[in-house]
Amino acid sequence: MSADTTICSELNQFYEIRAKAAIKNLERKNMDGYFVHNRQEALELVMSLIPLEAVVGRGDSVTLNQIGIIEELQRRGQNRIINPVETDDEGHHPPKEERRQRQREALLSDVYLTSTNALTLGGSLVNIDGAGNRVAAMSFGPKKVVVIAGGNKIVNDVEEALQRIHNSISIINSLRHYAKHGQAEAIERPCIKLGKCTDCFYEWRVCRHTSIIDGCQPAEKGRISVILVCENLGIS
Question: How far apart are CA 36 and CA 70, in angstroms?
Fold first, then answer.
């Protein structure tokens, strides 16, 4: 018998069971679902879903950074990339108005790349944005949306998803924006000071636009593809 000091194998099995259950319901809702075992398989699959010459937009996503998709597209050298969260050598994003312009342009991209804050077992994509550009692109605009998510993003239902986003993901994301990108206003959010969501009125509140995507219309079947990876990815 194996030493009972790690549950990596069991966790992977758990993620696979839940991913395959979610994929069945994604497909019932006219979305495509895929399961891969690791981020390298995810990268290869994403690249296969992006046609040569396609204009590619992206949302802010730690998962995309971990997969290395933008770097792989740059190596391919055949796609125009719209990257609103491109950083300089010090980790700073473009100036606000330039970032907003890139976000608007990404709404008309051929392929939009993003992750999701949560995916329910019932096949619903649940997300909360500060500016709303990411949830807008997922819902309408780009011809194709490719969502990459680790098994840690799968939750039981919408209620659990919203609790997770408000009281965990948004707080960790605010700390990331402060530490990695120098956004001073992020550290002043009330949720950081209290360790939980307070439904605040803070000017730079990160939770402003909530989206629950329950599928695509028949005419747009397959517009959204969800790739579930048997790893912890993104913000847990």
Answer: 19
Q: Residue 120 and residue 15: Cα distance in Å, rounded?
A: 13
Q: Which residues contact 189 (CB under 8 A, 6 or more apart)?
A: 171, 174, 200, 202, 204, 205, 206
Q: Note the pLDDT tens digit of each residue in 16-31.
A: 999 999 999 999 999 9
Model confidence pLDDT, tens digit, residues 202-223: 998 889 999 999 999 999 999 9
Short-list 128, 133, 92, CA closest to 112: 133
Domains of the chain: 8-229 (3.40.50.10420)
Give the DSSP H/E element, type plus range, for residue 38: none
* 137 in Cβ contact with 209 (< 8 Å): no
Residue 50 gets which letter from DSSP?
S
Surface-to-core class of residue 160, CB atoms within 10 Å of its CB (0-12 exposed, 13-18 middle, 19+ buried):
middle
**pLDDT for the residue 94:** 87
Query: Residue 213, exposed/middle/buried by CB under 10 A (0-12, 13-18, 19+)?
Result: buried
HSE-CB at 65 with a 13 A cutoff on CA atoms is: 10
Contact assessment for residue 61 and residue 52, using Cβ atoms and an 8 Å cutoff: no
| Predicted confidence (pLDDT) at residue 1 exceeds the cutoff of 60 | no
Q: At what angle do helices 69-76 and 39-49 cross, to 10 degrees?
A: 50
Structure tokens at 77: 């050298």
Contacts of 123 (CB under 8 A, 6+ apart): 22, 23, 24, 25, 26, 27, 28, 29, 31, 33, 214, 215
